[in-house]
Each structure stands twice: as structure tokens, then as C-alpha cells.
Amino acid sequence: MNGPAGPSRIARFAMAVAWSSFLCAGVMELLVFAVVDPGDLRWFGAAPVELSSQAIYTLSFLIFWGVIALSSSLALLLVNLPADEVKPARRAPGWPR
């Protein structure tokens, strides 16, 4: 007897992209905010960002996660493109010679 079937191929790819991009977004968040103070952020050099530090951390994490997930899924798509179709032989085997 076989057990229940595992997740589909697409579900496994989605989990791999989501989890790896989540970890990378966490590292990116640590690297960026080790250098940048959220209280010093400004909108294109003009008005200061009127959000709490926690809101800035959250929004930046979600933006990092989305961008990294997009790039990971594009890379996975390019790696898993189907191969060129094999061209059929001109004659079937056993064709009269």
C-alpha cells in the first residue's frame, strides 16, 4: 500500500521559493538596518517618513521578500524550462526499404 501522495511539483517549487526568499529577506533586513536608521529615512530627500520604526521594518521586509521571491521564481522558471522537443525520425522503424 502506498501512503498519501506528497505535494505536487508546483507546490514544492512554491515552498522552495517562499522559504528561501523568506530567509534571504531576513538577512537583507539585518544588513540594511545595521547601516540605516529608520528614523533618518526621508522620501527622496525631502520630507521625513512619518511611520514608526516597526512599520518601516515590516514594510521593508515585505518588499525585500517580494523582490527576492520574484527573482527566485524567475530563476526557477528558467532552470525548469522544458527541453526542445525531439524531432521524429523521417521514417518509422520497420518501414519498407
What would the keywords be for this entry?
elongated; 97 residues; mainly alpha; 2 helices
Describe this structure in words.
With 97 residues, the chain is mainly α. Helices cover 56% and strands 0% of the residues. The protein has helices at 9-35, 53-79. Helix 1 (9-35) packs across helix 2. The chain is elongated. The model has no long low-confidence stretch (mean pLDDT 84).
Helix and strand arrangement:
Elements: H1 9-35, H2 53-79
Helix pairs in contact: 1-2
Count, helices: 2
Give the class from helix and strand content and strand pairing: mainly alpha
Terminal-residue CA separation:
49 Å
- The global form is elongated
- Report the sheet with the most strands, covering strand number, pairing sense and barrel closure: none
Structural Rg? 24 Å
Helix amount, in percent?
Answer: 55-70%
Q: How much of the residues is beta strand, in percent?
A: under 5%
Q: How many β-strand stretches?
A: 0
Oligomer: single chain
